[in-house]
Amino acid sequence: MSTRPIHEGGCLCGQVRYSFAGDPLLVAVCHCRNCQKQSGAPFSLVGAVADADYAESGETRVFVDHGESGAAVDRHFCPQCGSPIRSMAAALPGLTIVKMGTLDRPDQWPPVLEAYCDSAAQWMPALAQQRFPRSNIEA
Ligand SMILES: [Zn+2]
Ligand SMILES: [Zn+2]
């Protein structure tokens, strides 16, 4: 194994716990309507982690969502408390898309881009320099 730092997180009730090694490959804000619906918040902060670097304990349930392209996005959540934990997007093989708000320390990485700004709350200031009206990444 590597000596990269391990970052841990989990759901609201504690049934699901996870960890990943090293920094996320990408941290982004997603303003898509599906993230808004799932999170109950105006946007979702997501981090891409290599599948091989991600480990999880506890059980998740999966809602099979679909992005605009029609590609499947498996949204994993805790069946006890409902916290969204991660998304597995068919369009992003090999990557686990972690819901960064569930990290024990959620403030370590600012977002480098914003996706689906077309559906961003109009009152929200820009959070990243790169802002895309839509995205080919759906998570
Ligand atoms: Zn839970
Ligand atoms: Zn989204």
Keywords:
139 residues; mainly beta; three-stranded antiparallel beta sheet; binds zinc ion; 11 strands
Structure description:
The protein has one helix and eleven strands, in the order βββαββββββββ. With 139 residues, it is mainly β. The chain has one helix at residues 33-39; strands at 6-10, 17-21, 26-30, 44-50, 54-57, 61-66, 72-77, 84-89, 95-99, 113-115, 130-131. Helices cover 5% and strands 39% of the residues. The protein starts with 5 loop residues before the first strand and ends in an 8-residue tail after the last strand. It has an eight-stranded mixed β-sheet with strand order 6-7-8-9-4-3-10-11. A three-stranded antiparallel β-sheet has the order 1-2-5, with no helix packed on it. The protein has a single domain (6-131), classed as glutathione-dependent formaldehyde- activating enzyme (gfa) (Alpha-Beta Complex), CATH 3.90.1590. The mean pLDDT is 94. It is globular. Bound molecules: zinc ion (2 copies). One zinc ion (ZN) is lined by residues 11-13, 15-16, 78, 80-81, 83. Pfam families: GFA. Keywords: Lyase, Metal-binding, Zinc.
Short description:
The protein has 139 residues and is mainly beta. The strands form two sheets. Strands 6-7-8-9-4-3-10-11 form an eight-stranded mixed sheet.
Task: Spell out the blueprint of helices and strands.
Layout: E1 6-10, E2 17-21, E3 26-30, H1 33-39, E4 44-50, E5 54-57, E6 61-66, E7 72-77, E8 84-89, E9 95-99, E10 113-115, E11 130-131
The chain binds zinc ion (2 copies).
